[in-house]
Amino acid sequence: MSKVLAMIVAITCCASAYSQTPRTAADFEKQGLKNLTIHNYDAAIADFTEVIKLTSTLQKGDSFFSNSFTDDRESGEQVLSPNQVFVIDPRTAVAYMNRGRAHLSKGDVNDAIGDFDRALRISPGMAVVYMCRATAWLMRERSDLAIEDYTKALKLNPEFVAAYLGRGTARMDAGETTSAFDDFDQAVKLAPRDASVYFHRGNANRYSGDARRALADFEYALRLDPKHAGAYSGRGAVLLQRRDFNGALKDYSTAISLDPYLGEAYAGRGYVYLIQGKDPEADADIQRALLLSPTLRPDIESSIRTIKSWRP
Questions:
Q1: Which residue, among 66, 57, 107, has the nearest Cα to 87 in the 3D structure?
Q2: Of 153, 165, 158, the residue nearest 127 (C-alpha)
Q3: I want to staple 131 with a disulfide (CB 3.0 to 4.6 A). Which of 70, 82, 111, 153 is the partner?
Q4: What is the pLDDT of residue 236?
Q5: Do domains 1-122 and 193-312 have the same CATH topology?
């Protein structure tokens, strides 16, 4: 990132920034965020691309994609030449970030990293972009780079609860269990009434093999927020491990009713159906999980093989 920086026009006040921006940029931004929320990722990518086009100018080339960049490192980061991009609106960095989020949700990790890199070249002080890129590194199984980015986010914002949760997850992946739980506990300290922090710590406890503490965290999360879909899905996973199939099925189904886009809940319910010999129902849920969360495919395929090995 330090090799090449995009050429940025200094904007001294918000009024002048927005006076240079066509009103349609705001419309595309609003529409893109709506599409991102409803999981219409292709439409969101198209919307944020329009925002980028309307808030920046390419001095060479006629594309906002790869032919305007050159590969720089193993990550697939692509570097803009200093005379290629002229930013006329601070919204450009946010649009790159949001387009990266849409790519990430689709499972297009390299495209997501590229957009997060561009956002950071334009606005290197955006802690949330470091956090987003760290999540992408986790999906690439590069916990070392994820830890670096989460740490950068925390240097910019020492009370960034989501970054503590993310770094804790990355440290778990790296086998740094003690440091990971330090991060989860710090998140709890900063946000003791936030159900999500207990949900994430519950997942960490589950992955580390402490089902009792995992169950306690998921249940506390549900006391704080009885509509937390992730906590139901997490508790369902613990119950599945304990072979309480009816309890797991109920929790996964509740999670899906609260969040019909939660891929892990469909996968978990699919496993229960598979164990119960309800193959058509299992296949429907598994296919839905893969559609919603393509990055789960390796874990899902491994779990299916394991479950089928149990069956006569």
A1: 57
A2: 153
A3: 153
A4: 98
A5: yes
Cα dihedral angle (45, 50, 55, 60), rounded to 10 degrees?
100
b/e map of 8-26 (b: 16 or more CB within 10 Å)? beeeeeeeebeeebeeebe
Question: Which residue, among 261, 224, 220, 219, has the nearest Cα to 236 in the 3D structure?
Answer: 219
User: Is 1-122 assigned to CATH 1.25.40.10?
Assistant: yes
Q: What local confidence, expressed as pLDDT, does residue 23 receive?
A: 56
> pLDDT value at position 149?
98
As a whole number of angstroms, the distance between CA 269 and CA 251 comes to 9
Measured in residues, the chain has a length of 312
Could you tell me which residues come within 8 angstroms of residue 65 by beta carbon, excluding any fewer than 6 positions away? none
CA distance 77 to 68: 12
- From the first residue on, what is the mean pLDDT of each consecutive set of 10 residues in the chain (312 residues)? 21 29 76 90 94 71 37 43 55 93 92 95 93 94 96 97 96 94 97 96 94 97 97 97 96 97 96 95 96 87 90 67
Neighbours of 192 (CB within 10 A): 10
CB burial of residue 86 (10 Å; 0-12, 13-18, 19+): middle
Distance in angstroms (rounded) separating the CA atoms of residues 233 and 138: 21
Residue boundaries of the structural domains of the chain: 1-122, 193-312
- Find the helix or strand (DSSP H, E) in which 71 lies: strand 70-71
